[in-house]
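Example record

One chain of 88 residues, shown exactly as stored in the release files.
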Amino acid sequence: MSEVSSTFRPESVSIETLAQLGEGHIAYVKQVRSEDVPELFPQAPKIAPGLMLFALHAADGTPIMLTDSREAAVASAWSNELQAVSVH
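Predicted structure tokens for this chain:
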């Protein structure tokens, strides 16, 4: 019997391939400043500056929802059958 060994080399994986990892299964929660909301969620109403909010994104980076608590973002992921991970 022979052993198979492989090494993951991040530099050999394209950005497109990385974006597809976890697609439809994983979402990430990221803390965002209210000043960054218009860029991420153009349809969002104007929000006062200086607030820290939480955005839920699909694995490929597509913004899904915005909320004022991490718990609400995670709950939204779970309700959509997505595994939520945090990004710092």
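Notes: The longest helix spans residues 70-79.
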